[in-house]
Specification:
Keywords: Membrane, Transmembrane, Transmembrane helix. This is Type 4 fimbrial biogenesis protein PilX N-terminal domain-containing protein. The chain crosses the membrane at residues 6-29. There is one protein chain. The protein has 365 residues and is of the alpha/beta class. The protein has two domains: 1-128, no CATH class; 138-349, no CATH class. It contains five helices and 21 strands. The strands form four sheets. Strands 5, 7, 8, 10, 11, 12, 13, 14, 15, 17, 19 and 20 form a twelve-stranded mixed sheet that branches. A hairpin with a 6-residue loop joins strand 3 (98-110) and strand 4 (117-128). The longest helix is centred in the first third of the chain and has 64 residues, at 2-65. The mean pLDDT is 89.
């Protein structure tokens, strides 16, 4: 009887131990499965996060490549993982930086297996490099002493409706040479000298000199960047070049020139003009060369250079010319025609607008 009881106890203990082992095994298996699931979800979330960040960069690049279409849906895949982004723009007119578009980007990215999803929101601003189209074909911070020849075709409404504006300066305008300002039609028909608004010894209403309201910082007035921070604008240029020899009719955008600018062929076009900033060096345009756009002869703060600004032999600027110092115009020729289409395009064309992220607008919810 005692032996039977012992055997029964042994079997009972064995069964209990087996049950415990089975329960522990099942619990461990369940725990490991849960651990694997958590790790897989974590890896999927990490993947979705990386895809969302990369996708956001791709979306901003696509917006930058086509700034005329800021309201759209953009989809794509990165490493087998899909994303979709919706962009909605709001335009702000007459801001301190001109016409500004603020774009709200709402992006959803998935992991490759579709188990994880990441949502990002970001705002970007599309800003013009040039705040607004110049109102005058010639603007000089300082005096303008012309002893050579010049012809300037006025902006017919630069001084207000029906009031022409040819030259705008902070100092005196002294016409000692053979030159004149005139209307658009007179310039086109070659009658600028015979039907002038202003000429030697006679200033018309189209010349606004000694203007107390002339901006103290012409560079900032035009580009929205203080003169003391000019490197910021230079770094945003389409290209930085040592001279103008490589430029031609297909050139466009903001072009920063660090050496003498003496082009031998036309630069830019009415549809795709240029904004040339020539830093501390001479501008000499010879022959029948036409520059479509803006020429800004820029003297950097602290520089004592006095570069020349001369157009000879039928050369002319279709647009505007500006300088933040007294340029050397002696014995040269200055032929500038205010071209509204050209000057509008240097503000609105894609090559003259930049995309910037708006600080504090990124969020992942």
């Amino acid at each position: 009887m005692r032996t039977k009881q012992t055997g029964f106890a042994t079997i009972t203990i064995t069964v209990l131990l087996l049950a415990v082992i089975i329960l522990v095994t099942l619990y461990t298996a369940r725990f490991k499965m849960q651990e694997q699931r958590i790790m897989r979800n974590h890896a999927g979330m990490q993947e979705a996060t990386m895809v969302s960040e990369a996708a956001l960069e791709q979306v901003i690049i696509q917006l930058d490549n086509n700034k005329d279409n800021l309201d759209r849906t953009i989809t794509g895949t990165i490493g087998g993982a899909s994303y979709s982004a919706t962009t909605v723009s709001t335009r702000f007119n007459n801001s301190l930086r001109g016409v500004v578009d603020v774009v709200d980007i709402s992006l959803t990215a998935n992991s490759a297996d579709g188990r994880a999803r990441r949502v990002l929101n970001q705002q970007v601003a599309v800003l013009p490099i040039i705040r607004s189209a110049p109102d005058t074909p010639v603007a000089i911070k300082g005096t303008m002493n012309v002893s050579g020849n010049f012809q300037v075709a006025a902006n017919p409404n630069g001084g207000g409706d029906g009031v022409p504006l040819s030259i705008w300066t902070s100092g005196d305008v002294d016409i000692n040479g053979s030159g004149s300002t005139c209307g658009q039609q007179e310039y086109t028909e070659g009658r600028c000298s015979s039907s002038p608004f202003s000429e030697r010894g006679e200033h018309g209403v189209d010349i606004l000199d000694n203007d107390p309201n002339f901006p103290p910082d012409l560079f900032e007035y035009l580009f929205g960047v203080p003169e003391s921070q000019w490197e910021t604008l230079r770094d945003a240029a389409t290209m930085i070049i040592p001279n103008c020899s490589s430029l031609g009719p297909n050139s466009t955008g903001l072009i920063w020139v660090t050496g003498d600018c003496a082009p031998g062929t036309d630069i830019g076009s009415e549809e795709n003009p240029v904004a040339l900033i020539v830093q501390d060096t001479n501008v000499r345009i010879n022959g029948n060369v036409t520059i479509n756009g803006l020429v800004f002869s820029f003297r950097t703060p602290g520089s004592t250079a006095s570069p020349e600004l001369k157009l000879n032999g039928g050369a002319n600027i279709q647009g505007a010319v500006m300088s933040n110092y007294d340029p050397d115009l002696s014995n040269g020729t200055l032929m500038v025609r205010y071209n509204e289409e050209v000057l509008t395009n240097i503000v609105t064309n894609d090559r003259f607008r930049r995309i910037f992220r708006i600080g504090g607008s990124w969020r992942d919810f």
